[in-house]
Design goal:
68% helix; two-stranded antiparallel sheet; mainly alpha; Cox20
Length: 120
Protein backbone atom coordinates (compact mmCIF):
# COMPACT_ATOMS: atom_id res chain seq x y z
CA UNK A 1 0.00 0.00 0.00
CA UNK A 2 1.46 3.33 -1.04
CA UNK A 3 1.89 6.09 1.52
CA UNK A 4 -0.23 9.20 1.18
CA UNK A 5 1.68 12.05 -0.48
CA UNK A 6 2.90 14.78 1.80
CA UNK A 7 1.47 18.24 1.15
CA UNK A 8 3.93 20.49 -0.59
CA UNK A 9 5.63 17.72 -2.59
CA UNK A 10 5.79 18.71 -6.25
CA UNK A 11 4.55 16.27 -8.84
CA UNK A 12 2.07 14.50 -6.55
CA UNK A 13 -1.34 14.88 -8.13
CA UNK A 14 -2.98 18.11 -9.18
CA UNK A 15 -1.84 21.11 -7.09
CA UNK A 16 -4.38 23.37 -5.43
CA UNK A 17 -4.21 26.83 -6.99
CA UNK A 18 -5.98 29.87 -5.57
CA UNK A 19 -7.50 32.05 -8.31
CA UNK A 20 -5.68 29.83 -10.80
CA UNK A 21 -2.30 31.47 -10.19
CA UNK A 22 -1.24 31.09 -6.54
CA UNK A 23 -0.07 27.54 -5.88
CA UNK A 24 -0.73 27.46 -2.14
CA UNK A 25 0.41 23.87 -1.77
CA UNK A 26 3.99 24.42 -2.90
CA UNK A 27 4.62 27.96 -1.62
CA UNK A 28 5.80 27.99 1.99
CA UNK A 29 3.49 29.91 4.34
CA UNK A 30 0.78 30.50 1.71
CA UNK A 31 -1.70 27.94 3.04
CA UNK A 32 -1.44 29.16 6.65
CA UNK A 33 -1.66 32.81 5.64
CA UNK A 34 -4.81 32.27 3.58
CA UNK A 35 -6.36 30.16 6.32
CA UNK A 36 -5.68 32.69 9.08
CA UNK A 37 -6.70 35.56 6.80
CA UNK A 38 -10.08 33.89 6.21
CA UNK A 39 -10.58 33.45 9.93
CA UNK A 40 -9.56 37.07 10.54
CA UNK A 41 -12.03 38.20 7.91
CA UNK A 42 -14.91 36.37 9.56
CA UNK A 43 -13.99 37.61 13.03
CA UNK A 44 -13.52 41.23 11.95
CA UNK A 45 -16.64 41.37 9.78
CA UNK A 46 -18.89 39.57 12.23
CA UNK A 47 -17.56 41.54 15.18
CA UNK A 48 -18.14 44.83 13.37
CA UNK A 49 -21.64 43.75 12.37
CA UNK A 50 -22.52 42.78 15.94
CA UNK A 51 -21.32 46.14 17.20
CA UNK A 52 -22.83 48.42 14.53
CA UNK A 53 -25.44 46.41 12.53
CA UNK A 54 -24.18 48.02 9.32
CA UNK A 55 -23.97 45.32 6.65
CA UNK A 56 -21.98 47.08 3.91
CA UNK A 57 -19.43 48.55 6.31
CA UNK A 58 -19.05 45.16 8.01
CA UNK A 59 -18.23 43.53 4.68
CA UNK A 60 -15.60 46.20 4.05
CA UNK A 61 -14.14 45.62 7.50
CA UNK A 62 -14.11 41.89 6.76
CA UNK A 63 -12.17 42.40 3.54
CA UNK A 64 -9.76 44.71 5.34
CA UNK A 65 -9.36 42.15 8.10
CA UNK A 66 -8.58 39.47 5.52
CA UNK A 67 -5.91 41.61 3.89
CA UNK A 68 -4.31 42.69 7.17
CA UNK A 69 -4.26 39.25 8.79
CA UNK A 70 -3.08 37.53 5.60
CA UNK A 71 -0.22 39.98 5.09
CA UNK A 72 0.72 39.94 8.77
CA UNK A 73 0.79 36.15 8.82
CA UNK A 74 2.65 36.00 5.53
CA UNK A 75 5.45 38.35 6.59
CA UNK A 76 5.80 36.75 10.02
CA UNK A 77 5.97 33.24 8.56
CA UNK A 78 8.35 34.19 5.75
CA UNK A 79 10.66 35.95 8.21
CA UNK A 80 10.81 32.84 10.40
CA UNK A 81 11.24 30.65 7.30
CA UNK A 82 14.19 32.76 6.11
CA UNK A 83 15.75 32.65 9.58
CA UNK A 84 15.41 28.87 9.64
CA UNK A 85 16.97 28.54 6.19
CA UNK A 86 19.97 30.66 7.29
CA UNK A 87 20.42 28.51 10.42
CA UNK A 88 20.23 25.34 8.33
CA UNK A 89 22.80 26.69 5.89
CA UNK A 90 25.18 27.61 8.70
CA UNK A 91 24.77 24.17 10.28
CA UNK A 92 25.42 22.48 6.91
CA UNK A 93 28.56 24.54 6.38
CA UNK A 94 29.73 23.77 9.91
CA UNK A 95 29.23 20.04 9.43
CA UNK A 96 30.96 20.18 6.04
CA UNK A 97 33.93 22.04 7.55
CA UNK A 98 34.06 19.63 10.50
CA UNK A 99 34.24 16.67 8.12
CA UNK A 100 36.72 18.42 5.84
CA UNK A 101 39.14 19.60 8.55
CA UNK A 102 38.83 16.68 10.96
CA UNK A 103 42.22 15.13 11.89
CA UNK A 104 44.23 17.79 10.05
CA UNK A 105 46.51 20.50 11.36
CA UNK A 106 43.75 23.01 10.49
CA UNK A 107 41.21 21.39 12.87
CA UNK A 108 40.13 24.08 15.41
CA UNK A 109 39.17 21.43 17.99
CA UNK A 110 42.63 19.89 17.74
CA UNK A 111 44.31 23.27 18.24
CA UNK A 112 42.25 23.92 21.39
CA UNK A 113 43.13 20.56 22.96
CA UNK A 114 46.81 20.84 22.04
CA UNK A 115 47.00 24.42 23.29
CA UNK A 116 45.41 23.50 26.63
CA UNK A 117 47.66 20.48 27.31
CA UNK A 118 50.95 22.26 26.40
CA UNK A 119 50.42 25.01 29.00
CA UNK A 120 50.46 22.47 31.91
Amino acid sequence: MAAAPEPGEPGKGKPFKLLGILDVENIPCAWDSILYGSLGSVVAGLGHFLLTSRIRRSCEVGVGGFIMVTLGCWFHCRYNYAKLRIQERLAREGIKNKIFYESTHLDPARKQTNGGSSSN
